[in-house]
Structures are given as structure tokens and as C-alpha cells.
Amino acid sequence: ANRKFHPTDTVVDCGFGVKIGGGNFQVIAGPCSVEGENLIRIARRVKAAGATMLRGGAYKPRTSPYAYQGMGAEGLDLLCEARAELDMPIVTEIMDPRDVQLFLDKKIDVMQIGARNAQNFPLLKEVGKTQTPVLLKRGMSGTIDELLMAAEYIMSEGNDNVILCERGIRTFETRTRNTFDLNAVPVLHYLSHLPVVADPSHATGYTRYVEPMALAATAAGADGLEIEVHDDPSHAWSDGAQALTPDMFDDVMRRIQIIREAI
Ligand code: PEP
Ligand code: MN
After folding, report:
1. If you measure from the C-alpha of residue 119 to the centroid of ligand 1, how many angstroms do you get, rounded to a whole number?
2. Would the CB of 203 count as within 6 Å of ligand 1?
3. Once rounded to an integer, what is the mean pLDDT over residues 114-137?
4. Would you say the ipTM is above 0.85?
5. Of 27, 28, 76, 97, which residue has the fewest beta carbons closer than 10 angstroms?
6. Which of 116, 197, 204 to mutate to test the pocket of ligand 1 (most atoms within 8 A of CB)?
7. How far apart are the C-alpha atoms of 34 and 58, rounded to whole Å?
8. Domain-wise residue ranges, the chain
9. What is the SS3 assignment for 86-106?
10. DSSP state of 33
């Protein structure tokens, strides 16, 4: 992952002609969880607004075992149906090394490793044995060096298609869900050749802060953003408090474009 050994930026090919890194900027958007048939409605809206990758969790790493755990394989199928209609790569979280074969069978375009699994070394090694792009999120108490070492776990098994993701870290601050470490964007670009994505949704935890932090991350040179969008946030099965509605997402995408043109 170290730029010393690889001075030029890595460009990760996510399929459907969507490349990220080295000047290629992409927005990943969709609901926190795949919940059912609203997925396709949300997917149509985020694509129309300019998102190039669709996200949605079918396996959810919830704090409580009694909270909604995700639709599992059925959720992957809904993502695959949306991909077939919209011709866009899908990004979804994998939590268990035993699911790698299933994700390969379904031809999941990008496997997300969530913050809670950022140092799940057996999982990192297992996705490292594939060639599927991996969106690797920073652990909530993980340092930048720990994130880079997690990337090494994947790459040392042979998979160089790693995209790093800053999603906020835990600090003493309680007004936001996490503290968005915007520093991580330029620091990761200095240290590593891998693409860097920012997730202002989990980094802030509140809808009202998502847009300003999305714009800030874009201005700071992020190679992409991951943003949660839901068509009925107050009834979302997870993370409704930080979801943008499709209309809000339209506005954010317009402003991201203005920042992209200005930098
Ligand atoms: C998510 O992307 O929905 C998610 C659970 O993110 P994180 O792992 O960053 O908390
Ligand atoms: Mn979420």
C-alpha cells in the first residue's frame, strides 16, 4: 500500500467501466440496509443523480444482536437485480470469511469490509485471495497506520484492488456519531497509492451534516464518497438519522460537481 514502492496512483476497476483513483472520482450511494423493494426505487434515483455505484448492506454488523441483521443472501439477490436493471456496480458488506464463495458466485462487484471488521485478519486474508475490489473502512478506533496494515493483509494475499475509506473515528466528542478525520484524506494520499473514499454519513451520523462534510472531503481530494440515501429515512431499518432523501442527494450531487470543477 506504501507509495514508496508504487509512486503512481492505483486505479481500481469496479466493473461497468467504473474506475476509481488516479483522478477518477466516484460516488457510491444507496440505503444503509437492503430492506426490500424500495432498493430499486432508491437505486434509480441515486443513479439519475449521478451516483456511479450502488450500496446496500445485506449482512449488517449491528451493535445489538436483537437489531435488524439484514436480509442475507436474499438481499444480495435484490442488489443483483438492481445492478442488472441499472448497469452499475454494487458495493455490499461481507462480515464472514465463509461467505466469500457466495459473494463470488453472485459476482458482487465490490466487497465492503466494515469498520468493525477492519482488523478481522482472517476475513481480510480471505478477501485477499480473490481479485474482487475491496472497500476497506477504517476501524472506529483505528489509526491510519492500522488501516494501511489492514490493506496490506488483503494485498499480501494477492489482491491489489483495495479502496481505503475514512468513515470517522471515536473521540470524546458526542455531538456527532463519530469524528470525521478529514486529515486522513491527504495523509492517506501522501502515504499510499490506493484510492481514498470518504463516508460523511457514518462520519457524522446526522443528515444535516452529511452535505457539508461531503463537500469538504471532495475539496480535500477524496477519490470518491459513500453516502447513505433512503426514500423514507424515518422508517429506515438502520441508520435513518443519517440518511439523505433522494431530493437532498440531488442537491448534494450538484454541489459536489461544482467543487470538483473548482479544484
Ligand atoms: C455501513 O456502511 O453501513 C457500515 C456499517 O459502515 P461502518 O462499517 O463504517 O460503520
Ligand atoms: Mn449504515
Report:
1. 14
2. no
3. 98
4. yes
5. 97
6. 116
7. 6
8. 23-262
9. HCCCEEEECCCHHHHHHHHHC
10. B
CB-CB contact of 89 with 54 (8 Å): yes
Alpha carbon nearest to ligand 1 atom 8, residue = 114
Q: Please, are residues 122 and 143 in contact by the beta-carbon 8 Å criterion?
A: no
| Residues in CB range of 94: below 8 A, 6 or more apart | 59, 100, 103, 108, 111, 112, 113, 123, 127
What phi-psi label fits residue 49: left (phi over 0), alpha (psi between -120 and 50 degrees) or beta? Answer: alpha
Torsion of CA 56, 112, 220, 183, to 10 degrees: 120
Q: Is the CB of 118 under 6 A from ligand 1?
A: no
Ligand nearest to the CA of 238: 2
Contact 6, 160 (CB under 8 A): no
Topology (CATH level 3) of domain 23-262: TIM Barrel (3.20.20)
* Residue range 156-209, pLDDT digits in tens: 999 999 999 999 999 999 999 999 999 999 999 999 999 999 999 999 999 999
Ligand sitting nearest the alpha carbon of 239: 2
Give the rounded percent of residues in the chain with a pLDDT score beyond 70: 100
pTM listed for this prediction: 0.98
Task: Tell me the C-alpha distance between 126 and 35, whole Å.
Answer: 27
| SS3 assignment, position 38 | helix
19 alpha carbon, distance to own chain's centre: 14
Closest to 226 (Cα-Cα) out of 237, 246, 207, 210: 210
